[in-house]
Design goal:
With about 400 residues, the protein is mainly α. The protein is built from 15 helices and 4 strands. α3 packs antiparallel against α12. It is globular. The two termini are about 25 Å apart.
């Protein structure tokens, strides 16, 4: 196995294993994190062996943007320690941000980084889908004979090897649209793609995540609309009129959608008035942001059930980002996000994948999950004209 393929395999496995948060050795360090660190070392050795660094215009812009984010996090943490909003050793989120950023900075300096990212995405899909099938095997068969409380969150919600079921939910969220994309590219058989979608949805429903269900429903309707508009033949001005009408309809239905989300949230969670609790966390997260609106209060959670700075997440990525890194941090991520949209605008599956991450991020802080960063970097750096490889490998994943 050549070094580039080994890097892709390790990185794909590592990203999938970062959801195994019940299997950790020291604090936030688990199998996935160790594999990510080992992959970073392998990348450093590879760059040293090559004795040259590949540089492109896109890589220069991306690396500059990422270094700005890391510098901001460092300054914000120093300010947070001085103000007492973050402990001296409380840099768990900073490590969660920095590790995938460091990896992508190293990867983009290899001459064939696009091929490495594509292979990484394929191996991530293979191992994640295999894990989902293992979860399904337990839910459908093994649980009838042996109930294992270790696989549940407070004995109610299925969480697999994740401490928090929302971590498994985020992994499960991404797999169906990837399966549909691979089927559309004829990289996996249709029947295998359908089975993979059914398995992911089945496990996802057992997680009982309101965020997962709402994201799937919204993205399904948008995906169906895109597919419908793609099949019918209309003149350009008619398409514009229909799209504007659909957009205005969605805006007018926003209040109804918010009420539906509230009902789903309250019915899915064991805690009553879950949506009210989430609104409280949002409010206190915003209050924490107002204490340091430019550079934030440091990379840790700053919301709370009764007041700001109780150490709770806001359960909203934008609010958590604002409270951590302020307006400057949000600006950097928005620039990255808009750049990804521009680069992915010609691929409906990539846009749906990005949309799912965005919708889900309104319910949970996804920035500390390496999978989120990889999705953004893959969509930004992938060559949309290049066909995916390794179809024979994928066919064996079922």
């Amino acid at each position: 196995m050549n070094s580039n393929k080994m890097i892709a395999v390790l990185l794909g496995i590592a990203l999938s294993f970062t959801t195994f948060t019940k299997v950790r050795f020291l604090g936030p360090i688990g199998i996935g994190e160790l594999l990510l660190a080992f992959t970073a070392l392998l990348l450093i050795f590879q760059l040293a062996y090559n004795q040259k660094i590949y540089i492109s215009e896109k890589s220069i812009k991306l690396v500059s943007l990422l270094y700005s984010f890391i510098l901001l996090a460092f300054v914000s943490n120093l300010f947070g320690v001085w103000r007492g909003t973050i402990g001296i050793m409380d840099f768990r989120d900073a490590i969660a941000f920095s590790l995938p950023i460091l990896l992508i900075i190293l990867v983009v300096h290899l001459p064939d980084y696009q091929n490495i990212l594509t292979r990484t995405a394929l191996y991530f899909y293979i191992f994640s889908q295999a894990y989902i099938y293992c979860c399904l095997l337990y839910i459908v068969v093994i649980r009838n004979f042996f109930y294992i409380d270790f696989f549940y969150f407070y004995s109610t919600r299925f969480s697999g090897l994740s401490l928090n079921p929302n971590q498994l939910a985020f992994l499960t969220l991404l797999l169906p649209i990837i399966s549909l994309y691979l089927v559309s590219r004829k990289k996996i058989p249709t029947h295998l793609g359908i089975l993979n979608v059914v398995a992911a949805v089945w496990v996802g429903l057992r997680i009982e995540s309101d965020a997962l269900l709402v994201t799937w429903i919204i993205s399904f309707f948008i995906y169906s609309y895109f597919m419908f508009m793609k099949k019918i033949k209309l003149k350009k001005h008619l398409r514009i009129i229909i799209n504007l009408f659909a957009l205005s309809f969605l805006v007018s239905m926003l209040k109804v959608v918010l009420e539906i989300i509230k009902d789903v949230s309250n019915s899915f969670n064991e805690v009553r008035n879950q949506s009210d609790i989430r609104y409280t966390l949002w409010e206190n997260g915003i209050k924490a942001f107002t204490k340091s609106p430019l550079i934030g209060n440091g990379t840790t959670s700053h919301s709370g059930l009764f007041s700001p700075f109780e150490g709770h997440e806001s359960h909203n990525t934008v609010i958590d980002l604002l409270s951590m890194l302020g307006l400057f941090g949000l600006l950097i991520i928005l620039l990255l996000f808009l750049w990804v949209i521009i680069n992915s605008r010609q691929n409906v599956y990539y846009l749906i994948l990005l949309l799912q991450v965005f919708i889900y991020s309104n319910f949970h802080n996804v920035m500390r999950q390496p999978i989120t960063w990889f999705v953004l970097f893959f969509l930004l750096l992938s060559n949309h004209k290049q066909e995916l490889n390794s179809s024979s490998t994928l066919k064996k994943s079922g």
